[in-house]
Amino acid sequence: MQEIEIAELKKLTEIVRDKYRYDFSNYAMSSFKRRIQRILELYRFPSIDALCKKLQDEPLFFKEFLSEITVNVTEMFRDPSFWRVLRDQVLPNILLNNNNISIWHAGCSSGEEVFSLAITLREMGLLEKVKIIATDIDTAILEKAKSGIYPLKNMELNQKNYIRYQGTQTLENYYKEENGKVIMDKSLMANVSFQEHNLVNSRPFSKFDLILCRNVMIYFNQTLQNNVLKMFHESLFKYGYLIVGSKESLIWCDIANKFIVVNNEEKIYKKIRD
Amino acid sequence: MSQYNLNNQFRAVVIGGSAGSFQVINKILASLPKDFDLPIIMCLHRLKHVRNGFVEALNIKSTKEITEPEDKETIKKGHIYLAPANYHLQIELGNTFSLSTDEMINNSRPSIDLTLETAAYNYKHRLIGILLSGANKDGALGMKKIKERGGLTIVQDPKDCMIDTMPSAALKITEIDHTLNIQELINFFKELYKESKSNY
Known about the structure:
- The complex is a heterodimer.
- Chain A is built from nine helices and ten strands.
- Chain A is an alpha/beta fold.
- A seven-stranded mixed beta sheet of chain A has the order 6-2-1-7-8-10-9.
- Chain B is of the alpha/beta class.
- Chain B is 32% helix and 20% strand.
- Chain B has helices at residues 22-30, 54-61, 112-123, 140-148, 165-173, 182-198, and strands spanning 12-17, 40-44, 66-67, 80-82, 88-92, 96-100, 127-131, 152-156, 178-180.
- In chain B, strands 3-4-2-1-7-8-9 form a seven-stranded parallel beta sheet, with helices on both faces. Chain B has a two-stranded antiparallel sheet with strand order 5-6.
- In chain B, helix 3 packs parallel to helix 4 (140-148).
- The longest helix of chain B is centred in the last third of the chain and has 17 residues, at 182-198.
- The radius of gyration of chain B is 15 Å and the shape is globular.
- The A-B interface holds A 28-31, 34, 71, 73-74, 78-81, 160-161, 164, 215, 217-219, 222, 225, 245-249, 252 and B 49, 51, 68-73, 84, 86-87, 90-93, 98-103, 118, 121.
């Protein structure tokens, strides 16, 4: 596999930005390069030039490109200890001051985390009090999330995670099996709205009690991460919570002093300053 | 005069290992001089869902503290790093870490190949890559990349390994510079240390 040069990636991101208004120039380099390499192999492009040409000449191809450029590997109840802290500390804390909870799940991918959230809320008897907005840059993956249909083989890991989470039931109660796939209980999504949204260059569109953005910003460089975090800060009510992935961090970024660390192991932050 | 012809050109050491590598790492880190200043980046196969216990176990005997880096953390001289569970650990141009939750590679996340390859891309010939005992081929392609970029490649002697699949796979596709047993690996680090001190 030919090594991709930075100059070629720059050319590609310029074409995508100028023609389609999606700016990938601040995505983290190693992962972005790997995604492009993957696309070249998948579509058998002999070079990035060939990929650039296709993007220039065939607008319909861009949707596929967008679907393949993002990493969509996800699990239900990934980091079970996090979900326990969410259930036992974060959500009850939000309820101390509110009757209802508004949650933004940013970068929801194929929805496994959204379903995990809904299951957690249902088991707490809170699902009716919560409004969830789940967003992603990729409309194809959002359709997948809306359908709630997953490969059966994924459920083994999901069940293991759920058991470690110590849920009150068994994960099987939330789906039915059909032809090597599982169909999630649609009622879990009654208060969830899936929307297309690009975190790059985005402005706040609402205010939330809780923003979940786990293992999404690892694919952004520091500049972009800083911008997104600023936007998240503005999108939170005072004393609202921001949660990122267990090995991500807010500490070095501009808005760090507007948050306190509620739980460093699970990277749960609380906004204390506007 | 060092038998390894080291030239003090190196800026980092990457170590990959799986089954059978824990004791080797322990011995190396237990005999490391406290002011050894090359960053050491370790990618060891581990259980995906076990976040605590591994780095703590390694820290018992190590002369220097080992940490599991966070995304975007700067790679610092004299520090020892261990790839955290259930993430791929990559090295970015500019000497920072980046994480990924992408598909497992060779059934592993973290993947040794990914750490080695991105390290090779960043450090080029200023990198030492070491591959230890393990039961699959993860790391073979990474070692090849390190060699191609002019770095120094070392594997644990297959005869010395608990499971030799990993170093043997690397030997098969690349002309590895040195094949060392555990004692020779410990001596290698001592030579590296001496070399780095002698040029001040």
